[in-house]
Amino acid sequence: MKIDSIDHLNTATAQRVGVSFLHESADLHVSGTATYTDDLPELQGTAHIALGLSEKAHARLLEVDLEAVRQAPGVIAVLTVADIPAANNCGPILHDDPILADGVVHYFGQPIFAVIAKSHDQARRAARLGKISYEELPAILTPQEAKAANAGVLPLMSLKQGDAKKALESAPHRLQGTFQCNGQEQFYLEGQISYAVPKEYGAVHIWCSTQHPSEMQQLVAHCLGVGAHKVHVECRRMGGGFGGKESQSALYACVASMAAVKLQRPIKLRLDRDDDFMITGKRHGFYYEYDIGYDDEGRLLGARLDMTANSGFSADLSGPVATRAICHFDNAYYLSDVDMSALCGRTNTQSNTAFRGFGGPQGALVMEVALDTIARRLGKDPLDVRRINFYGKEDRNVTPYDQTVVDNIIHELVAELEETSEYRQRREHIRQFNASSPVLKKGLALTPVKFGISFNVPAFNQAGALVHVYRDGTVLVNHGGTEMGQGLNTKVAQVVAHELGLNLEHIRVTATDTTKVANTSATAASTGTDLNGKAAQDAAYQIRQRLTTVAAQLFSVEESNVKKFERGQVQIGDQTMPFFQLVEHAYQARVQLWSDGFYATPGLHWDSKVMKGNPFYYFSYGAAVAEVLIDTLTGESRLLRADVLHDVGKSINPALDIGQVEGAFIQGMGWLTTEELVWNAQGKLTTHAPSTYKIPAISDCPIDFRVNLFDGHNAMDSIHRSKAVGEPPLLLPFCVFNAIRDAVASVGNYQIEPELNAPATAEAVMRAVAAIRKAK
Fold this sequence. Notes:
By secondary structure, this protein is of the alpha+beta class. It has 19 helices and 29 strands. A hairpin with a 5-residue loop joins strand 27 and strand 28. The model is unreliable at about 1-10 (pLDDT under 50).
């Protein structure tokens, strides 16, 4: 599906879904007038917080002398763990993540105290004046060290299907080895921020840049020792989240709220980029040990996979991340006999957390690397090896966790991409190029994606919404999802507009607010539109039914004769009435013109003890082809062309979906090529600023970037048969990493396997090339 134009009002069609409407805040974004938390007018007396951070990776606090901090210019108060009214915890699942350090610090950058001053600058300067004495303790800094010490934040997870041991022993060929992928900084444009204002009787109102307002509400309530009804959390929009604001916005919400209630004045806590890097968790880095059996054709016969995630010092969301990694090792391939385990390794680093893909990319990456290696060993085209391992439609269609794949379109999708990308012809041309080019080498790879959609925990797959219709026919919508630039509010507005037959200018979606829709789930796991769209549709449908009854009574016809709500008109038999006039009649008849809606994803179940069940409502599919060029003298790599075909079902807004696919592809490419996190021997993160941590820039995007949506619909009853688009396409740039490996392998005439982990930085590529030349 190609997008030729975007029409904001689109009066040419009555359709309000499946149409490329502009993002509801697009003009605000480009004009710089979109309001974020830091843009809110500050109330009189607003004070500012900065955090005093640990300078050791693991140590006992012997003395914390804060007298110089208290005497610094502009300082109003200094808070430590002793000032927390109730629970010193901001962990989303376990109570193992202190708001402020209590006796021991567990990573370099952990907050020890909070400084409240009259200005942001004064608070930051004062925070540097703390004098802290430490007794250093042994520190674990890598997942390999955590594995060797059997140090985990959670018990070991394992999933077994069939008899992997027997399958491996009888396999004609075995691929054994290790692999490693690094973590990734979320690098949202808007940093972590909370603005807290005290209210009556110990209540507090918090404007927070968060993907999970309800969790912030609960954790702040526990911190303050009050009921959740006294904590009001609001979020109009975020300047990006990518998972980094799902659980880890809690520390800042808790500290700001604690200070606001204690001092009875408005408090703002806005992290600078360096502090944000130093304090917050990243995508989990993974270390793998694998043993894969296969036959002469490359068909997978059995696999053993031992994964260790770098979880950091606390559990955070590591359990669900590791679970999703295990459930995505198969990616698009049938595995009959597997033995998988995952250790959430405890290290003395930032507590790692959610990041777009949430363990799925880490689970599937090692499979894609292994299949390319198997193909090179057998002298076969990697696509042919992949194809014979694809899930079937009638057989070979049950995952290792016992879920049947009922919506498999990977065969058709890959076949279409193979043809449109001219994959076969280009592989031959690249072989010819490499044979005659001693310094510059090209690589090509095609990788598919099968990604499960739903939260790992069934209870999180629910959502609520409120829809208000006013007497003039305009509509106000509130739902539990949060807008972080992905276009969730636009899609929800389209759903409501479609249900009520209105133009988008008549629909307004308000800030996410815990006083309007309670007990919401995080906007994560790519479920934002699935859940909140269905809930809003439910609410709008109820109002439409009430209006249908009013119309039928007004015109003395059967309700079945109220045929259409379209273009702001209601067709009743052979007559029409403007929507706003019908609404006024309903008001005069004392008919309820607002409604709540609710949705719970059906058919989900999961047994975490054996890791079996039906954890996903459906799967999203996709595939991509990357052509890269590497310089064997410098290690520099460049993506020349990318062809992407991605499945979003029956798209609600194709332009927004293509934008999400493009963004996910480049972000995933950054994770695998340029974004390198480095800790020194003392456990300090040395890549803690844009000057030392390289995210992709516009120059890293391919000049030839061909992104299309696969023409299909969701087999499951999702919102308008669409599919999630947030996370699945982040796995598409596996092809970039494998294309770089393909180019490196050409140095040894494809006979020597590259020693290349992720990210494939220029230095890493140089080392891999040197290793092959030495082996030759």
